[in-house]
Amino acid sequence: MGSTGTSGLPPVYIVSAVRTPIGQFQGKPDRHPIGFTYHQMYEPPLHLMQQVKYPDRMAQQLPSSEYLPYNPKTSKKYSLAMSSPQKPLANFLPPPKSLGQNPARQCALNAGLLNSTICTTINKVCASSAKSVILAAQTIMTGTASCVVAGGTESMSNVPHYLPTLRRGSKYGNETLADGLLRDGLTDAYSHEHMGLQAEECSRDHSIPRAAQDDYAIRSLQKAQHASQSGIFAKEICPLEVPNPARGKPPTLVEKDEKPQLPLNEEKLRAMKPAFITDGSGTVTAPNASPLSDGAAALVLVSEPFLKAHDLKPLARILGWADAAQAPSKFTTAPSLAIPKALSHAGVAKEDVAAYEINEAFAVVALANLKLLGLDAGK
Q1: What is the pTM of this model?
Q2: Burial class of residue 159 in the structure, from the number of CB atoms within 10 Å of its CB (0-12 exposed, 13-18 middle, 19+ buried)
Q3: In contact, 119 and 104? CB cutoff 8 Å
Q4: Quick check: helix, strand or coil at residue 167?
Q5: Interatomic CA distance for residues 370 and 376, integer angstroms
Q6: Separation between Cα atoms, residue 35 and residue 332, nearest integer Å
Q7: DSSP 21-82
Q8: How far apart are CA 129 and CA 227, in angstroms?
Q9: One pLDDT digit (tens) per residue for the chain, 379 residues
């Protein structure tokens, strides 16, 4: 394998990986328009990876090919991760405001983990979940813990509006509500412009035309539809039971990502007007950007001694990682800096990578980084 950034350090393995379905913003019309709350979302993944309640009684990890389905009525019978009698830790991506204290701990305890579970909430915007996995791996490598849950949860449907002047009062004139989702989630804190305008900046900087962005969006959605229809995601998805606010109405069980279930109209997608620049030069549209949505995911990472002691089957080993940063408006091409650093840290050659994931909100981001790094679009 060669020397890696983690060579000489204890190995860390991923032994379980589950997620909720990705919910449509504000819910589907045939469901009910409330979206998923982050508490609801984290109960299924963490029940499936639940620590047993008695440290001296370890549950047996099932092989990765035998993930159990989530059943809201019997989920506490299922334990796919071990209880660590040392220092269990959980890291989670915080959704926007109005969460209460330490949402990571709320998710863990509401999902049935022990009160002794140490929880840390990470706020690094889109990189929060990935950073939580890095911190989890480092925690295990340094001997602080032997079993760590890392993941993220976000409920865009439930972000409130703010009345910023209410606390000190308003003596004259109209008051305006601020959209918490826009203010804290989608607006650059330095230039105070929407991140979509920075996607347009990326399009200009790297000469990525509208047609290329639409083509990428169509390919991406077609892949998602194929994966959903063929059941590729079935083993990793924990169906989510969403309560119905109407009295006497049964809850809805959401078992698949909601957006890919909608029909794709390529002609309509290509005809959509730009969302951020409307003078005729804009290229970024709603459908060639990611939709607003709700979802959660979690991984269980363990040390090698823990792996062997509980006869676990690893899904993967963490070889390395990297962070990168540049001017805030250039966040779109930060992956072109981070990916070479991560490959170097892991001791992996570029040509040996089977698949890359550039997880950002705009088609132009993936296209710009593919261009800068000279990556094979098929990967």
Answers
A1: 0.84
A2: buried
A3: yes
A4: coil
A5: 7
A6: 28
A7: PPEETT--TTS-TT---HHHHHHHHHHHTPPPSSTTSPPPPPPGGGPPPP-TTTGGG---SP
A8: 23
A9: 344 567 788 999 998 888 888 888 887 655 555 556 555 555 555 554 443 222 222 222 222 222 223 333 333 322 333 333 333 344 444 444 567 788 788 777 777 777 888 888 888 888 888 898 999 999 999 998 888 888 888 888 888 888 888 888 888 888 899 998 899 889 999 999 999 999 999 999 999 999 999 999 999 999 999 999 999 998 888 888 877 777 888 888 888 998 898 899 999 999 999 999 999 999 999 999 999 988 888 888 999 999 998 888 899 999 999 999 999 999 999 999 999 999 999 999 999 999 999 987 899 999 999 999 999 988 8
Contact 277, 109 (CB under 8 A): no
Q: Are 355 and 378 in contact (CB under 8 A)?
A: no
Q: Is 378 exposed, middle or buried (0-12, 13-18, 19+ CB in 10 A)?
A: exposed
Helix H or strand E segment including 18: strand 12-19
* H/E segment holding residue 118: strand 118-121
How many Å apart are CA 149 and CA 200, to the nearest integer?
Answer: 37
Identity of the amino acid at 69: P
Question: d(Cα 83, Cα 340) in Å, to the nearest integer?
Answer: 36
Question: Do residues 321 and 342 make contact, with C-beta atoms less than 8 angstroms apart?
Answer: yes
Rounded alpha-carbon distances, angstroms, from residue 214 to 29, 359, 362, 378:
26, 17, 10, 17
What is residue 154's three-state secondary structure?
Answer: strand
Strand-pairing partners, residue 151, are 298
∠ at Cα 283 (186, 24), nearest 5°?
A: 45
What the block records as the tokens of 367 is 């296209």
152/131 Cα distance (integer angstroms): 10
> DSSP characters for 281-324?
-----STTBPPPEEEEEEEEEEEHHHHHHTT---SEE-------
Residues found in the chain: 379
* Beta carbons within 10 angstroms of residue 367's beta carbon: 22
Q: Report the b/e string of 312-342 with b at 16+ CB within 10 A.
A: bebeeebbbbbeeeeeebebbbbbbbbbeeb
